[in-house]
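Mods, move this if it's the wrong board.
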Amino acid sequence: MRRYKSFLRRKNIVFSARRYGIEALGAMAQGLFCSLLIGTIIRTLGQQLHMSSLADIGTYAMSVSGSAMSVAIGYALKADPMVLFSLAAVGYAANAEGGAGGPLAVLVIAIVAAECGKAVSKETKVDILVTPAVTILVGVALAKLIAPPIGTAAQAFGALIDRATRLQPFWMGVAVSVLVGVALTLPISSAAICQVLTLTGLAGGAAVAGCCAQMVGFAVMSFRENRWGGLVSQGLGTSMLQMPNIVRNPRIWIPPTLVSALTGPLATCVFRLEMNGAAINSGMGTCGLCGPIGVWTGWIAPSAEAAAKGAVAVTPGAFDWLGLCLICFVLPAVLTPLICDACRRAGWIRNGDLTL
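Not the wrong board. Structure tokens:
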């Protein structure tokens, strides 16, 4: 057992929830962002501006999302270069075989393939053959074996959330908005979760509402402590910056979470706000304005995931734009500071509690 633990230490193989559930998942979201998400935005802009070359660039970026996710996961797991480069083929296979659940399949399979590759890396004199062979053979074999069932399960669960939101828009609006918003602020990837569950439609709209409530809410309510730098870093970056403060005083989480519980059902019941762009947008909030952009792209060109659930292109009216602005920006910016002020008066939040 001692030799086994020593081997794992030497190979930097760490079996932990943090390594796989936080670091690998977060890296996967970055890989998604740098391929599928930015590609979707570029392609949509190209289509709307009637620039075919721009649309082609976006399409190319979208097509390598599986490889980008897998390589990003390998990077988070500190894989050796030969393993890291071999994961491109593994990610492509897992994403292709996984269908709608491709990202979840990539996460599971890339982790296994990367750790197997790390285990044999530099252990033989023919490392240049052994390491990529083991990594690719293990990864692609697993992709053929388990990626299709993973895709089916993820698609079924995402469809269940979608149907439940349509049947119970109020309560599911509250639940999805709060849970995804909280996930966005926690050191896990809400974007990856939404992509894994193919969260689009009304459920996607509720997720956008929750994420925007957290990001815009924290940015505005902490303005007195963090000024303009904090407004930009949290409002267009991530509310995860507040996690150390939340650990010290969990009550600072009350205002944005309450607002997400309000804006979620408003999105689903009043404005019928659907996020039919790339599913990853549902968990991005106002990070790079990806959440609102996802709603807009979903209006004019629904993603494949949304189209599979019956989404069609629409021409947004004034009410749609009003709902988007209120849910994503105005209500979080107005309501969160009001609730925060009440918490300050009650002594739950003190000066300096929100300082980055």
